[in-house]
Design goal:
193 residues; alpha/beta; 6-stranded parallel beta sheet; 8 helices; 6 strands; globular
Length: 193
């Protein structure tokens, strides 16, 4: 995973299974709210959605209704890594998560996370530093957070770039496989002793 600097458009990425527990219905509402409330940003902010599931027709409808929404369906790992690298923000409006792999991958690419304030996501995201944690289903706050990150990207590119590097470093320092394995090993040893 790597960071690619791209000044073309501010890209908001969502990827995963398009199921209710993953917040696909909330994602749909967030995009509708953002495009209605901030219609003047339609040429500046682009939503990229990948994945399949029961809500894929909703995502297709969004991509037909709005020029700033791209629904790509299933993508392979190489394409996903590319999307992380060219995106600027990651949405995680889930209702439930265990260890959110996509959030870790996005953070490893330096993407700030705007996600639900639930276990799993709240263990990875430092509210106000590596992203924003928002109450599940609070579409208004999700849309506002997207706008805040867009404004940071547009108004302070250097600060935005430094934030991305710091997010990546935080994830590498805390979630690298070697670190996780050492923590698991220490936990198991403490249970045995």
């Amino acid at each position: 995973y790597f960071i690619k600097r791209d000044e073309e458009r501010f890209r908001v990425l969502w990827t995963g299974r398009l199921f209710r527990e993953k917040g696909a219905d909330i994602l749909y509402e967030i995009i509708l709210k953002f495009n209605k409330k901030y219609s003047h940003l339609a040429n500046e902010v682009e939503f990229i959605i990948t994945g399949t599931g029961p809500y894929q027709e909703h995502m297709r409808d969004l991509s037909k209704s709005f020029n700033n929404v791209k629904y790509l369906g299933y993508v392979d790992e190489d394409t996903l890594r590319h999307l992380y690298s060219i995106s600027h923000l990651y949405l995680a409006p889930s209702r439930s998560e265990e260890m959110p792999l996509r959030v870790l991958e996005a953070s490893c690419s330096g993407l700030a996370i705007v996600g639900s304030k639930i276990p799993g996501i709240s263990e990875v995201v430092i509210n106000g530093k590596t992203g924003y944690l928002i109450n599940v289903g609070d579409v208004e706050r999700f849309a506002e957070a997207i706008k805040k990150y867009y404004e940071l990207w547009r108004g302070s590119p250097e600060e935005y770039c430094n934030m991305r590097k710091a997010i990546r470093q935080h994830i590498i320092r805390n979630y690298d496989w070697d670190i996780i394995i050492n923590r698991l090993e220490a936990m198991f040893k403490s249970l045995i002793i």
